[in-house]
Amino acid sequence: MLEQALVQLLLLLGATVLVVLVFQRFRIPPSLGYLLVGVMLGAHTAGPVIDNDYIDVIAEFGIVFLLFTIGLSFSLPQIYALRHTILGLGTAQVALTTLVVSMIAWWLGLPGPAAFVVGAVFAQSSTSIITKQLLEQGESQARHGRLGTTMSVFQDITAVPFVVIIPVLGVAAMHEVAGALGMALAKAFLAFVIVLLSGRYLLRPLFHLVAERRSAELFTLTVLFVSLVSAWTTKTLGLSMAFGAFLAGMVLGDTEFRHQVESTIRPFRDVLLGLFFVSIGMLVEPALLPDIWLEALLGAVGLLGIKVVLITLIVRFSGVDPQTAFRTGLVLAVGGEFGFALLAIGLDGNVIASRPAQIVLNAVLFSMILAPLLIRFNQPLALWAFGRSRGRAKPAGDVPTPSEPTESQGHVVICGFGRTGQTVSRFLESEGFDYLALDMDPAIVREARLAGQQVFYGDSSDLTVLENVGVERAALLVISHDDRPAALATLRNAKRLNPELAAVVRTRDQQHVEELRKAGATEVIPETLEASMLLTSHALQSLGVPLYRVALRLQEQRSSHYRMLRELFRGTLDSIKPEASEQERLHSVLMSEGSPAIGQSLSELDTERDDVSVTALVRDDKRERYPGAATEVQTNDVLVLLGSQDNLERVERRLTGSGQPPE
């Protein structure tokens, strides 16, 4: 028995690694890879079959941990600030989508209970696909990104009453359904109170006590215990485990431990969420696909179209500009993971028959394949549909937005008004320079406005927002946040409006400097390198080096774009990163006897044509920095080369006559 279970586990892991590796290679969402693994190893396809009894139990914890991490991103103050969005827009979206789709399904011939299941399934959106795609695009903090994320989280919460209603639809009278729903809401309120009180009086002291022990294992065990005991609490009350995990995450999201908790739970979430998708893939019956593919495809188109139209109208009715409303609709159009769970409940309760369930299942799958494209191109599609909309609604809390073009001339635009942006503004103000700042945190904007500063709520990567703050007439653009995708989008849009605009950009380290320069940055300030410079300055002064020489050395490095600081040897872990082949690194090459380069001068080697430079030469255990171009290479010399991995491999093969790549 144990041997059989081990074989199945190895088969599952091996297939998953292979498929997800291929999908990531072609930039296809891994969730679709997990679904494919489930189809391949399910009972409805030829070949090996995995027993899904244990997978179903374990996979449910993937949704639990997903909702736990989502809760971390929505603390109680944020939920309160967005209460009108969540209760108003969220309720309207779920209710109207369920109603419209249910009526269409009933009109097409499905029984009422089955039609309701279809409506409930279509009302859900994939929080994992939405958040992942928005993060990759740098739009997670944009207005449409936050609206989409918030409303998708609310959809996950609405799964609680659906879980109660669907099993009894086929047999219960209407008053019994109403009673069950009322009881579920009462239990949900009780669970909220329990988790809220325990979070306030137990969780924070508990995590303080654990953090004092400085044990990573103990911290991990505590995070798992808290998330699972919260899930168990709501499960005991007859509610969804995911709902309890969401409440626990929401409480912890308001503490100083939020980021470490999220980092700790992420590996468990990703693996178990993958198993959840595998379990859903096992429900697919490929043998039925030739008969139902057209209905499934039309269902996917209907799902996407109906949700885009309804969500755009709902968000537009709330006062948001048409372009943002449409982009929110595109983000939320995708079908969701909880839709699969609701469909499985409907099948178990015999509320919906197998054939229509397969059509709905495949329709949601098709929508999940198409949706990443809609999310990726939401801005071009919105520009095509509505043009450049200038009207912009204010965010929650009546925070001012740059809704009208400014007439400022020669001012500085600061993107991101956190610690760095505020520091820059203080110096600009002291020197008498005018500036306008943009930030996506309503609390920062509100406080800064009260202090009399020109700070607006807005997504700096949005072309229209940049127009409204007068980038085409600005003297300087400062990007002070460390969101690289958003910074790239901001630079490209700013250069479209003002090709001559100088731009100073903050980045975390040197690996993205060239990418930002190519996008239009005049100067890129890497935090880690500047920290190294400051540390070096203090170290040299402590050793008695005169201050003028220290300043000269630092200025030389800044003038050469941190040349010496970029000369780094890479370790094994660095070499397996996806971007490793594009990063510059140092590599030492031994000139053995018989190497073609022996007897040639460094200028004759012409390594510069491959964007590789010689930074040092080691001869007879003596190291010479930046040897002259006339230096001849001798046997047993070691050349220290600087370049990208691909270029280093090419140069080494040419210099040594070997096909071996650098280690």
From TrEMBL:
Primary site of residence: membrane
Residue ranges of coiled coil: none
Cellular localization per UniProt: Membrane
Residue ranges constituting the RCK N-terminal domain according to the UniProt record: 409-526
Keyword RNA-binding: no
Topology in the lipid bilayer: Multi-pass membrane protein
InterPro entries in the cross-refs: Cation/H_exchanger_TM (IPR006153), Na+/solute_symporter_sf (IPR038770), NAD(P)-bd_dom_sf (IPR036291), RCK_C (IPR006037), RCK_C_sf (IPR036721), RCK_N (IPR003148)
Entry keywords, A to Z: Antiport, Ion transport, Membrane, Potassium, Potassium transport, Transmembrane, Transmembrane helix, Transport
Cited Pfam families: Na_H_Exchanger (PF00999), TrkA_C (PF02080), TrkA_N (PF02254)
Residue span, RCK C-terminal domain: 574-657
Residues passing through the membrane, by range: 6-23, 32-50, 56-74, 86-108, 156-174, 180-203, 238-255, 267-284, 296-317, 329-347, 359-378
The protein's name: Sodium:proton exchanger
